[in-house]
Amino acid sequence: MNENNCRASYYADSANDCVDYAALSGEQQADICVIGAGYTGLSAALHLAKKGYAVTLLESETVGWGASGRNGGQVCPGHNMSHAELSKKVGRAAADALWHSSLESVQLVKDLIAEYQIDCDLKQGVMHVAAKPAHVADIRDSVSYKQKVLAYDKIDFVSDAEVQAMLGTERYYGGEYWQDAVHLHPLNYALGLAKAATAAGVKIHEHSRVTQYQAGKHAAVHTQDGVVKAKYILLACNGYLDKLEPRIAGKIMPINNFIIATEPLSDELCRRINRDDIAVADSRFVINYFKLSGDNRLLWGGGENYRRHFPKDIPNFVRPYMLQFYPELSDVKIDYGWGGTLAITLNRMPHFDRLEENLFVAQGYSGHGVALATLGGKLMAEAISGSVETFDLFSRVPSPSFPGGTLLRWPGLVAGMLYYSMRDRFF
Ligand SMILES: Cc1cc2nc3c(=O)[nH]c(=O)nc-3n(C[C@H](O)[C@H](O)[C@H](O)COP(=O)(O)OP(=O)(O)OC[C@H]3O[C@@H](n4cnc5c(N)ncnc54)[C@H](O)[C@@H]3O)c2cc1C
Asked: What's the pTM value of the predicted model, to 2 decimals?
């Protein structure tokens, strides 16, 4: 078991019935072997099984053990690269199509939750707010761009005064409110996808770390105690890929991000700090994000590190970020603190690739993966069944490797990240 365990998380403690899936043992045949049971792998497996393929899904720990069971639960359209910048890189038509895919990814999450009746505290509304007055102009411009250039009418600019009334603090300023975005309990969403996939015929094996594989004519995926012989292999390991596939490791950088959960708060306090029960993310480079849980806890995400290890005392690492905006919560008890590893790419667009004829990968959602990883899995399933258009739309976005490859990417990235987090403090 990896030492960066999430069993201490609020999500793990409030998980719906967890099913134990037996480890792989001996030889199995499948049409497709998927590696990694986060949203990418679960969505791929589910969509493939619905198309009639025989699918085996291998997970080194447990379903949703990675970022999918630990995240902020915000499901918002858009990409981390602006539409204007994307248009310069891939052309206006492709940038428009990528924007529409992001809208579809949010709808896909909602549709799956409805179709499989996944009980995951689904709630409406996400707002991005300025952490400094100087950030408001950019947010106003971004809203206006989406309304005018993209003809998107499900977004509103929210004034300083209204943000402050909604969030009960004068430390946040103007924001953009995404009417159609949602937030949810991430682990229960992953567990619901696993249940749906199993019902559709997918064979899930937990505690089955893939140690090596070969694609090509005699594709085979090996764990310590078994082997899956398959026609296709899908890589869905994201920030936990490690050394499994050196050809793509340099395309992503694993980053650790942390969340705390307070004790349950009174209804009155909840309404004061989050009047409309929405999810919020701010404009800092190392963003703060928060929402209320189903049982009135404040879940606050803040702070990250770029090492293999998590801080020893996560509650005390994250708490100061919360108190900066809500000093009145200084007496509130922190019941949980946990972390997770996500993968970012150099240009913050997801990295989708076909490494060999029968080997696909989708990774690097750069903090935007609840919706995009669900879509990534579906697009790999479509690519295998013959509709490659949307998978290729993403795979054609240039995905540069981090300078220095897997060995030397750390020093450059860490210096860059530290520079920007210093800017958070001063500008
Ligand atoms: C703290 C935090 C907050 C976040 N907040 C948000 C948010 O609010 N909104 C949002 O959209 N995104 C958010 N993200 C990002 C989002 O969680 C991820 O983009 C998404 O979960 C990626 O899903 P995935 O399936 O690709 O990867 P993961 O969920 O990480 O799954 C990969 C799986 O592969 C398994 N694996 C790895 N190697 C092997 C192997 N050799 N053999 C077998 N299995 C293996 C791992 O154990 C893991 O379970 C956040 C991430 C973190 C960490």
From this structure: 0.95
